[in-house]
Protein backbone atom coordinates (compact mmCIF):
# COMPACT_ATOMS: atom_id res chain seq x y z
CA UNK A 1 0.00 0.00 0.00
CA UNK A 2 3.04 2.29 0.15
CA UNK A 3 2.56 3.43 -3.47
CA UNK A 4 -0.12 5.82 -2.23
CA UNK A 5 2.50 7.98 -0.48
CA UNK A 6 4.38 10.89 -2.08
CA UNK A 7 7.87 11.49 -0.69
CA UNK A 8 10.07 14.51 -1.41
CA UNK A 9 13.81 13.95 -1.07
CA UNK A 10 15.83 17.14 -0.53
CA UNK A 11 19.63 16.79 -0.72
CA UNK A 12 22.32 18.74 -2.54
CA UNK A 13 24.40 15.59 -3.01
CA UNK A 14 23.32 14.15 -6.36
CA UNK A 15 24.55 10.63 -5.62
CA UNK A 16 22.65 10.61 -2.31
CA UNK A 17 19.48 11.83 -4.04
CA UNK A 18 19.74 9.10 -6.63
CA UNK A 19 20.41 6.47 -3.98
CA UNK A 20 17.43 7.54 -1.85
CA UNK A 21 15.20 7.75 -4.91
CA UNK A 22 16.12 4.17 -5.87
CA UNK A 23 15.79 2.90 -2.28
CA UNK A 24 12.33 4.40 -1.79
CA UNK A 25 11.07 3.53 -5.27
CA UNK A 26 11.76 -0.11 -4.45
CA UNK A 27 9.32 0.30 -1.55
CA UNK A 28 6.70 1.53 -4.05
CA UNK A 29 6.71 5.12 -2.83
CA UNK A 30 6.27 7.90 -5.36
CA UNK A 31 9.53 9.80 -5.06
CA UNK A 32 10.29 13.41 -6.03
CA UNK A 33 13.64 15.12 -5.65
CA UNK A 34 15.01 18.63 -5.04
CA UNK A 35 18.74 19.49 -5.34
CA UNK A 36 18.69 22.49 -3.00
CA UNK A 37 16.55 24.29 -0.45
CA UNK A 38 15.04 26.89 -2.78
CA UNK A 39 13.98 24.24 -5.27
CA UNK A 40 12.42 22.33 -2.41
CA UNK A 41 10.48 25.42 -1.28
CA UNK A 42 9.17 25.91 -4.81
CA UNK A 43 7.91 22.33 -4.93
CA UNK A 44 6.46 22.49 -1.42
CA UNK A 45 4.48 25.63 -2.18
CA UNK A 46 2.88 23.88 -5.15
CA UNK A 47 2.38 20.34 -3.89
CA UNK A 48 1.54 18.61 -0.63
CA UNK A 49 3.77 15.63 0.16
CA UNK A 50 3.11 12.90 2.67
CA UNK A 51 6.73 12.90 3.83
CA UNK A 52 9.78 15.06 3.28
CA UNK A 53 13.25 13.57 3.73
CA UNK A 54 15.55 16.57 4.04
CA UNK A 55 19.27 17.06 4.58
CA UNK A 56 20.35 19.71 7.09
CA UNK A 57 23.05 21.27 4.87
CA UNK A 58 21.76 22.22 1.43
CA UNK A 59 24.24 24.80 0.19
CA UNK A 60 21.83 27.71 -0.27
CA UNK A 61 19.50 27.57 2.75
CA UNK A 62 19.40 25.18 5.67
CA UNK A 63 17.19 22.15 5.98
CA UNK A 64 15.68 23.74 9.09
CA UNK A 65 14.28 26.54 6.91
CA UNK A 66 12.74 23.92 4.62
CA UNK A 67 11.31 22.18 7.69
CA UNK A 68 9.71 25.42 8.90
CA UNK A 69 8.12 26.08 5.51
CA UNK A 70 6.77 22.55 5.25
CA UNK A 71 5.17 22.81 8.69
CA UNK A 72 3.81 26.25 7.83
CA UNK A 73 2.21 25.06 4.59
CA UNK A 74 1.22 21.53 5.61
CA UNK A 75 1.32 20.89 9.37
CA UNK A 76 0.41 17.21 8.90
CA UNK A 77 3.29 16.43 6.54
CA UNK A 78 5.92 14.21 8.14
CA UNK A 79 9.50 15.56 7.98
CA UNK A 80 12.57 13.44 8.68
CA UNK A 81 15.91 15.27 8.83
CA UNK A 82 19.18 13.61 7.78
CA UNK A 83 22.75 14.85 8.10
CA UNK A 84 26.37 13.76 8.13
CA UNK A 85 27.12 16.64 10.49
CA UNK A 86 24.67 15.86 13.23
CA UNK A 87 24.94 17.28 16.70
CA UNK A 88 22.63 16.97 19.65
CA UNK A 89 21.86 20.67 19.45
CA UNK A 90 20.81 20.47 15.79
CA UNK A 91 18.75 17.33 16.41
CA UNK A 92 16.91 18.94 19.33
CA UNK A 93 16.28 22.08 17.31
CA UNK A 94 14.88 20.05 14.41
CA UNK A 95 12.57 18.11 16.72
CA UNK A 96 11.39 21.33 18.34
CA UNK A 97 10.53 22.70 14.90
CA UNK A 98 8.31 19.70 14.24
CA UNK A 99 10.57 17.07 12.68
CA UNK A 100 9.41 13.50 13.23
CA UNK A 101 12.95 12.18 13.56
CA UNK A 102 16.60 12.98 12.95
CA UNK A 103 18.67 10.32 11.17
CA UNK A 104 22.48 10.70 11.06
CA UNK A 105 24.50 9.74 7.99
CA UNK A 106 25.66 7.15 7.19
CA UNK A 107 22.40 5.40 7.99
CA UNK A 108 21.35 1.79 7.94
CA UNK A 109 19.04 1.26 4.96
CA UNK A 110 16.65 -1.03 6.82
CA UNK A 111 16.42 1.35 9.77
CA UNK A 112 15.66 4.26 7.46
CA UNK A 113 12.95 2.25 5.69
CA UNK A 114 11.43 1.30 9.04
CA UNK A 115 11.54 4.88 10.30
CA UNK A 116 9.75 6.11 7.18
CA UNK A 117 7.18 3.31 7.37
CA UNK A 118 6.44 4.05 11.05
CA UNK A 119 6.12 7.78 10.38
CA UNK A 120 3.67 7.26 7.52
CA UNK A 121 1.68 4.72 9.49
CA UNK A 122 1.34 7.22 12.33
CA UNK A 123 0.30 9.92 9.88
CA UNK A 124 -2.35 7.63 8.39
CA UNK A 125 -3.65 6.78 11.85
CA UNK A 126 -4.00 10.47 12.74
CA UNK A 127 -5.76 11.20 9.46
CA UNK A 128 -8.17 8.32 10.02
CA UNK A 129 -8.85 9.57 13.52
CA UNK A 130 -9.64 13.05 12.19
CA UNK A 131 -11.80 11.50 9.50
CA UNK A 132 -13.70 9.51 12.13
CA UNK A 133 -14.20 12.69 14.13
CA UNK A 134 -15.65 14.44 11.06
CA UNK A 135 -17.86 11.42 10.36
CA UNK A 136 -18.95 11.41 13.95
CA UNK A 137 -19.95 15.06 13.78
CA UNK A 138 -21.91 14.32 10.63
CA UNK A 139 -23.64 11.47 12.44
CA UNK A 140 -24.49 13.56 15.45
CA UNK A 141 -27.99 14.76 15.03
CA UNK A 142 -30.13 16.69 17.43
CA UNK A 143 -27.68 17.71 20.11
CA UNK A 144 -25.92 14.75 21.71
CA UNK A 145 -27.74 11.91 19.95
CA UNK A 146 -25.24 9.53 18.37
CA UNK A 147 -25.98 6.84 15.85
CA UNK A 148 -26.35 6.05 12.18
CA UNK A 149 -28.11 2.69 12.40
CA UNK A 150 -31.44 2.32 10.58
CA UNK A 151 -33.28 2.45 13.91
CA UNK A 152 -31.71 5.76 14.92
CA UNK A 153 -32.06 7.18 11.41
CA UNK A 154 -35.80 6.54 11.67
CA UNK A 155 -35.90 8.38 14.99
CA UNK A 156 -33.96 11.34 13.57
CA UNK A 157 -36.49 11.57 10.76
CA UNK A 158 -39.32 11.29 13.26
CA UNK A 159 -37.89 14.14 15.33
CA UNK A 160 -37.69 16.34 12.25
CA UNK A 161 -41.30 15.61 11.41
CA UNK A 162 -42.87 16.14 14.82
CA UNK A 163 -40.74 18.89 16.37
CA UNK A 164 -42.69 21.76 14.74
CA UNK A 165 -46.02 20.45 16.05
CA UNK A 166 -47.58 21.08 19.47
CA UNK A 167 -48.81 17.52 19.86
CA UNK A 168 -48.14 15.49 23.00
CA UNK A 169 -45.56 12.73 22.61
CA UNK A 170 -44.89 9.48 24.46
CA UNK A 171 -41.34 8.08 24.26
CA UNK A 172 -40.91 4.44 25.24
CA UNK A 173 -37.78 2.37 25.62
CA UNK A 174 -35.59 0.56 28.08
CA UNK A 175 -33.69 2.45 30.77
CA UNK A 176 -30.59 4.16 29.38
CA UNK A 177 -31.75 4.37 25.78
CA UNK A 178 -31.71 8.18 25.76
CA UNK A 179 -35.39 9.08 26.10
CA UNK A 180 -34.71 12.41 27.78
CA UNK A 181 -32.16 13.34 25.12
CA UNK A 182 -34.74 12.69 22.42
CA UNK A 183 -37.25 14.82 24.33
CA UNK A 184 -34.69 17.65 24.49
CA UNK A 185 -34.00 17.27 20.79
CA UNK A 186 -37.70 17.63 19.99
CA UNK A 187 -37.94 20.72 22.19
CA UNK A 188 -34.80 22.34 20.76
CA UNK A 189 -35.95 21.78 17.19
CA UNK A 190 -39.34 23.32 17.85
CA UNK A 191 -40.48 26.93 17.96
CA UNK A 192 -40.33 26.59 21.76
CA UNK A 193 -36.56 26.11 21.78
CA UNK A 194 -35.96 29.45 23.51
CA UNK A 195 -38.60 28.69 26.13
CA UNK A 196 -38.34 26.53 29.28
CA UNK A 197 -37.69 22.81 29.14
CA UNK A 198 -38.76 21.42 32.51
CA UNK A 199 -37.88 17.87 33.53
CA UNK A 200 -40.01 16.01 36.09
CA UNK A 201 -38.96 12.61 37.44
CA UNK A 202 -42.32 11.14 38.27
CA UNK A 203 -40.70 8.26 40.10
CA UNK A 204 -38.51 10.43 42.27
CA UNK A 205 -41.11 12.62 44.01
CA UNK A 206 -43.25 11.26 46.86
CA UNK A 207 -46.98 11.06 46.14
CA UNK A 208 -47.68 13.45 49.01
CA UNK A 209 -45.64 16.17 47.28
CA UNK A 210 -46.34 15.37 43.65
CA UNK A 211 -49.49 17.48 43.27
CA UNK A 212 -47.75 20.49 44.82
CA UNK A 213 -44.72 19.93 42.56
CA UNK A 214 -46.92 19.70 39.47
CA UNK A 215 -49.33 22.52 40.14
CA UNK A 216 -47.88 24.57 42.99
CA UNK A 217 -49.61 25.61 46.19
CA UNK A 218 -50.76 28.70 48.04
CA UNK A 219 -49.52 29.74 51.42
CA UNK A 220 -51.17 27.93 54.30
CA UNK A 221 -52.62 25.15 52.16
CA UNK A 222 -50.81 22.55 54.26
CA UNK A 223 -48.24 22.37 57.04
CA UNK A 224 -45.00 23.84 55.82
CA UNK A 225 -46.58 25.87 53.01
CA UNK A 226 -45.34 29.21 54.33
CA UNK A 227 -45.23 30.93 50.93
CA UNK A 228 -46.95 30.60 47.58
CA UNK A 229 -45.09 28.23 45.29
CA UNK A 230 -45.21 28.02 41.51
CA UNK A 231 -45.63 24.50 40.15
CA UNK A 232 -43.61 22.85 37.39
CA UNK A 233 -46.45 23.15 34.86
CA UNK A 234 -46.56 26.90 35.41
CA UNK A 235 -42.76 27.07 35.22
CA UNK A 236 -42.95 25.35 31.83
CA UNK A 237 -45.52 27.82 30.43
CA UNK A 238 -44.89 28.51 26.69
CA UNK A 239 -42.30 25.72 26.72
CA UNK A 240 -42.12 21.95 27.17
CA UNK A 241 -42.55 19.76 30.21
CA UNK A 242 -40.92 16.34 30.16
CA UNK A 243 -42.64 13.80 32.39
CA UNK A 244 -40.05 11.07 32.84
CA UNK A 245 -41.20 7.65 34.08
CA UNK A 246 -44.83 8.64 33.71
CA UNK A 247 -45.83 5.06 34.49
CA UNK A 248 -44.88 5.61 38.14
CA UNK A 249 -47.68 8.11 38.78
CA UNK A 250 -50.30 7.10 41.34
CA UNK A 251 -53.94 6.75 40.30
CA UNK A 252 -54.85 9.95 42.16
CA UNK A 253 -52.18 11.98 40.37
CA UNK A 254 -53.22 10.45 37.05
CA UNK A 255 -56.69 11.90 37.53
CA UNK A 256 -55.37 15.36 38.33
CA UNK A 257 -52.89 15.24 35.44
CA UNK A 258 -55.64 14.17 33.03
CA UNK A 259 -57.66 17.27 33.84
CA UNK A 260 -54.64 19.52 33.39
CA UNK A 261 -53.89 17.89 30.02
CA UNK A 262 -57.49 18.19 28.85
CA UNK A 263 -58.17 21.71 30.05
CA UNK A 264 -54.62 23.13 29.84
CA UNK A 265 -55.41 24.65 33.22
CA UNK A 266 -55.29 23.71 36.90
CA UNK A 267 -55.68 25.02 40.43
CA UNK A 268 -52.71 25.16 42.81
CA UNK A 269 -53.08 23.11 45.98
CA UNK A 270 -55.28 25.16 48.30
CA UNK A 271 -56.02 27.69 45.56
CA UNK A 272 -59.33 28.79 44.09
CA UNK A 273 -58.25 30.44 40.85
CA UNK A 274 -57.51 28.55 37.64
CA UNK A 275 -54.09 28.97 36.04
CA UNK A 276 -54.01 28.49 32.29
CA UNK A 277 -50.77 27.43 30.62
CA UNK A 278 -49.49 26.72 27.13
CA UNK A 279 -47.34 23.63 27.63
CA UNK A 280 -46.29 20.84 25.32
CA UNK A 281 -46.14 17.54 27.17
CA UNK A 282 -43.54 14.92 26.32
CA UNK A 283 -43.74 11.80 28.47
CA UNK A 284 -41.43 8.82 28.75
CA UNK A 285 -41.56 5.40 30.32
CA UNK A 286 -39.69 2.10 30.37
CA UNK A 287 -42.95 0.30 31.06
CA UNK A 288 -45.44 -1.10 28.56
CA UNK A 289 -48.24 1.33 29.26
CA UNK A 290 -50.70 -0.63 27.13
CA UNK A 291 -50.28 -3.55 29.55
CA UNK A 292 -50.52 -1.16 32.51
CA UNK A 293 -53.85 0.05 31.10
CA UNK A 294 -55.12 -3.52 30.70
CA UNK A 295 -54.09 -4.33 34.26
CA UNK A 296 -55.88 -1.21 35.51
CA UNK A 297 -52.75 0.49 36.82
CA UNK A 298 -52.79 3.33 34.30
CA UNK A 299 -55.81 5.30 33.10
CA UNK A 300 -56.75 4.58 29.51
CA UNK A 301 -57.99 8.12 28.88
CA UNK A 302 -54.72 9.62 30.15
CA UNK A 303 -52.73 7.15 28.06
CA UNK A 304 -54.47 8.24 24.88
CA UNK A 305 -54.02 11.92 25.78
CA UNK A 306 -50.28 11.46 26.22
CA UNK A 307 -49.66 8.92 23.46
CA UNK A 308 -50.78 11.08 20.53
CA UNK A 309 -47.42 10.57 18.79
CA UNK A 310 -45.42 7.51 19.95
CA UNK A 311 -41.66 7.12 19.65
CA UNK A 312 -40.08 3.77 20.51
CA UNK A 313 -36.32 3.92 21.14
CA UNK A 314 -34.49 0.69 20.24
CA UNK A 315 -31.99 -0.79 22.70
CA UNK A 316 -28.33 -1.01 21.72
CA UNK A 317 -28.59 -4.74 21.06
CA UNK A 318 -30.90 -3.88 18.15
CA UNK A 319 -28.56 -1.23 16.72
CA UNK A 320 -25.17 -2.94 16.82
CA UNK A 321 -23.95 -0.80 13.94
CA UNK A 322 -23.79 2.10 16.40
CA UNK A 323 -21.43 0.32 18.79
CA UNK A 324 -18.22 1.52 17.13
CA UNK A 325 -19.14 5.21 16.96
CA UNK A 326 -20.51 5.10 20.51
CA UNK A 327 -17.26 3.54 21.71
CA UNK A 328 -15.31 6.22 19.84
CA UNK A 329 -17.44 8.95 21.39
CA UNK A 330 -16.99 7.74 24.93
CA UNK A 331 -13.29 7.05 24.47
CA UNK A 332 -12.81 10.64 23.28
CA UNK A 333 -15.12 12.05 25.95
CA UNK A 334 -13.48 10.37 28.92
CA UNK A 335 -9.89 10.56 27.67
CA UNK A 336 -10.35 14.32 27.37
CA UNK A 337 -12.10 14.51 30.74
CA UNK A 338 -9.30 12.54 32.44
CA UNK A 339 -6.50 14.25 30.54
CA UNK A 340 -5.28 11.03 28.95
CA UNK A 341 -4.46 10.03 25.40
CA UNK A 342 -7.08 8.36 23.25
CA UNK A 343 -6.69 4.56 23.48
CA UNK A 344 -6.30 2.57 20.32
CA UNK A 345 -9.01 0.12 19.39
CA UNK A 346 -8.48 -2.84 17.08
CA UNK A 347 -10.88 -3.77 14.30
CA UNK A 348 -11.31 -7.14 16.02
CA UNK A 349 -12.50 -5.44 19.19
CA UNK A 350 -15.01 -3.41 17.19
CA UNK A 351 -16.31 -6.57 15.55
CA UNK A 352 -16.65 -8.28 18.91
CA UNK A 353 -18.53 -5.27 20.27
CA UNK A 354 -20.92 -5.35 17.36
CA UNK A 355 -21.57 -9.06 17.95
CA UNK A 356 -22.00 -8.58 21.69
CA UNK A 357 -23.91 -5.30 21.61
CA UNK A 358 -26.69 -6.75 23.73
CA UNK A 359 -24.29 -7.22 26.63
CA UNK A 360 -23.30 -3.58 26.84
CA UNK A 361 -24.75 -1.92 29.96
CA UNK A 362 -27.44 0.63 29.27
CA UNK A 363 -27.26 2.59 32.50
CA UNK A 364 -25.64 5.70 31.04
CA UNK A 365 -28.41 8.08 29.89
CA UNK A 366 -26.18 9.27 27.06
CA UNK A 367 -25.13 5.87 25.78
CA UNK A 368 -27.60 5.84 22.92
CA UNK A 369 -28.14 9.39 22.35
CA UNK A 370 -26.25 12.55 22.75
CA UNK A 371 -29.12 16.97 22.59
CA UNK A 372 -29.86 19.31 18.43
CA UNK A 373 -26.77 20.76 16.66
CA UNK A 374 -24.01 19.18 18.56
CA UNK A 375 -23.20 15.99 18.77
CA UNK A 376 -22.37 12.20 20.64
CA UNK A 377 -17.32 6.56 19.34
Write the layout of secondary structure elements.
Blueprint: E1 6-10, H1 14-25, E2 30-34, H2 37-46, E3 51-55, H3 63-73, E4 78-83, H4 88-96, E5 101-104, H5 109-139, H6 150-162, E6 169-172, H7 179-188, E7 197-201, H8 207-215, H9 232-235, E8 240-244, H10 251-263, E9 265-266, E10 275-276, E11 280-285, H11 289-294, H12 300-306, E12 309-312, H13 323-337, H14 347-355
Parallel strand pairs: 1-2, 1-3, 3-4, 4-5, 6-11, 6-12, 7-8, 8-11
Antiparallel strand pairs: 9-10
Tell me what the structure shows.
It is a single chain. The protein has 2 domains: 2-128, Response regulator (Rossmann fold), CATH 3.40.50.2300; 154-313, 3-Layer(aba) Sandwich (Rossmann fold). Helix content is 42%, strand content 14%. It contains 14 helices and 12 strands. It has helices at residues 14-25, 37-46, 63-73, 88-96, 109-139, 150-162, 179-188, 207-215, 232-235, 251-263, 289-294, 300-306, 323-337, 347-355, and strands spanning 6-10, 30-34, 51-55, 78-83, 101-104, 169-172, 197-201, 240-244, 265-266, 275-276, 280-285, 309-312. The strands form 3 sheets. The protein has a 5-stranded parallel beta sheet, sandwiched between helices. Strands 7-8-11-6-12 form a 5-stranded parallel beta sheet. Helix 2 (37-46) runs parallel beside helix 3 (63-73). The model is unreliable at 353-377 (pLDDT under 50).
